[in-house]
Amino acid sequence: MPLIELTGIERVFTLGDSAVHALHALDLSLEAGEYVAIMGPSGSGKSTLLNLIGLLDRPDAGTYRFEDRDVTTLSADEQARVRRERIGFVFQSFHLVPRLTAAENIALPLMLAGIEPAERALRVKQALADFGLADRAGHRPDQLSGGQRQRVAIARATIMRPALILADEPTGNLDRATGEEVMRLLEVLNHNGVTLVVVTHDGALGARARRQISMEDGSKVKDSR
Amino acid sequence: MTPTDTLRFATRAATGYPLRTFLMVLAMSIGVAAVVVLTALGDGARRYVVNEFSALGSNLIIVLPGRSETGGFNPANAITGTPRDLTVEDAQAITRAPAVLRTAPITIGTSEATYSGKLRDVTVVGATADYLKLRRMELAQGRFFSAEESNGTTAVAVIGTKIQSELFGVEPAIGRVLRVGDRRFRIIGVLAQSGQGLGMNADEVVILPVAAAQAMFNTNTLFRILVEARGRAAIEPARAQTLEILKTRHDGEEDVTVITQDAVLATFDRILGTLTYGVAGIAAISLAVAGILVMNVMLVAVTQRTGEIGLLKALGAPGATIRNAFLAEAALLSATGAIVGYALGQAGAFALRAAFPVLPAYPPDWAVIAALATALITGLLFGVMPARRAARLDPVRALSKR
Fold first, then answer.
1. Which helix (H) or strand (E) holds B108?
2. Is the distance from CB of B156 to CB of B209 less than 8 angstroms?
3. Count of domains observed in chain A
């Protein structure tokens, strides 16, 4: 049973009076525990695909089954629940809340899920230690380096122990060495059983994945599987 | 998200942008303070007037000669032109009415008082023995007229404190002979200081027996008859009985005007109360303006924090959570503004009282409650629209915005 199963996905954006097919007749199936890189030039539809998989966007046609459950028909709040419990996001621009400390940023998903403050503190402390941020707990994002910020973002993405991590150009704002370090962290997570999907236009980064999917004009042009 | 977390998140958001929070709290607090201070002023004026009237004496009915109401054409008017005068006998007749405790016929004029070469203009009040009790006045020295003295034309006088100090200085005034106009009166009493009352300074009067005053002014009519009812409940019967007696005595014609102190008081109370509502309404406009400001600032906050809202959605926050967070923030800012404004308003009212001690400028409870409630409600109400906008943001587009 695949973790993710997309069949006949269409996503059309209207720009002025012309319709742009961001995704066209897309079929895709991902098994649990896979490490997949989605590659392609900008405008190829790879970010749209990631948003669809992450339940941030809805397809105009086709079905999306996540953990053997049709999620396209779920209400917005039900989708939010799936995101909260099963999916972690890592963004190129980190998306940390600037006024909150590292620890508070990591605790956000736990707070949204309504977990007790005592347990929250315990899990955040563990996460800070796991990602080498123990001495940065009280720092705000503007007091952290790029690598530290992305580590906070990864800690936040994994704090709910999701089945799937979606990373959109996770090293795009980092230098090569820090990017390498961040990728290794993500790969360790994948090694421990989390499904990892990385969107990138960087060929070298994509080559690290066990499976590469190339996108062009809204369609899958190459799938290494 | 639990309510505690929502509140904490909103607090962090409010403190995260100090200038914005400060300006919003300032706007809201000015609105609330304006309501508190202006209603304190209005209600203070009302209380001041009411107190002034109460100082006249209580359960008072005032009889004026002549009829002030316009009744249209009345056959009686065609036969009798001028109204009959009020006389001391009228007053004595009213005293016999069951609901009436005492009456005080008064006549008023101005004259000159002289003592050992010093001359002064004075207000001369012709009164009877009951006048002192009816007006709730006190004597500083000596005694007031007896009933016999006030009925006759005995040459005795009671003077106000100011007259005493200006004409006699430190000398004792009791027993001295004061010249008023072309007559001489022996001073038998001095009034205690009482200050202003109905535009007449009781410290600057010379009180003579009513008959003596009438003789001096060469008249036998009265300026007013003051009637004191036997109690609050007796005011209305006393008024009716007074009117009835005077009608009978004046050949069946109602040619006097009878006003009760309560009615006058109630009228002033109503006018000034309405005035207070009016200024409260004007001040409430500033609250509405503050509410619109809350909405503006929250809309800006939503735009400013679009990325954050997108992130919260990606992290699995349902629309309701985001809406509540923004609503809580608006409520928090309004509540803080309301509390600060209340403190400012009370301080303003205190300053008013310190500057004008005669004015009891306390804000009425209803105004304080209404101001606080309006501040909170406008804050919440105007916070709803921005909060809903935040909750409805499309996560993909919100995330792509930095």
1. strand B100-115
2. yes
3. 1
B319:A95 CB<8 A: no
In a domain, A203, yes or no: yes
H helix intervals, B224-260: 235-249
Closest CB from A84, A99, A100 relative to B315: A84
Assess contact for B333 and B24: CB atoms under 8 A.
yes
Closest approach of B318 to chain A, Cα-based (Å): 5
Instruction: Residue A114: give its domain's CATH number.
Output: 3.40.50.300
CB contact under 8 A, B316 and A111: no
Non-local (6+) Cβ contacts of A211 within 8 A are: A34, A35, A36, A37, A223, A224, A225
> How many angstroms separate the CA atoms of B51 and A2, rounded?
87
Residues 71-90 of chain A whose Cβ lies under 8 A from any Cβ of chain B: 76-77, 80-85, 87, 89
The answer as to whether A3 is a domain residue is no
Computed over its alpha carbons, how large is the radius of gyration of chain B? 34
Q: Please write the tens of the pLDDT for every residue from A158-200.
A: 999 999 999 999 998 899 999 999 999 999 999 999 999 999 9
Domain that includes residue A90, residue range: 33-50+81-223
Calpha distance A115→A122 (Å, rounded): 11
Decide if A95 is inside a domain.
Answer: yes
Task: Tally A–B CB contacts below 8 A.
Answer: 67
Check if A99 contacts B (Cβ < 8 Å).
yes
Chain A hits for B308, CB-CB cut-off 8 Å, are: 97
Work out the minimum CA distance from A48 to partner chain B, whole angstroms. 9
Write the pLDDT tens digit of every residue in B255-308.
Answer: 888 888 777 778 888 888 888 888 888 888 888 888 888 888 888 888 888 889
Q: Compute CA distances B356 → B44, B50, B350, B353, whole Å.
A: 10, 17, 10, 5
CA distance A79 to chain B (A): 8
Would A186 be classed as within a structural domain? yes
**pLDDT digit string, tens, across residues A146-162:** 999 999 999 999 999 99
Whether B147 and B209 have beta carbons less than 8 Å apart is answered as no
What residues of A are in contact with residue B315 (Cβ under 8 Å)? 83-84, 89, 108-109, 112, 156
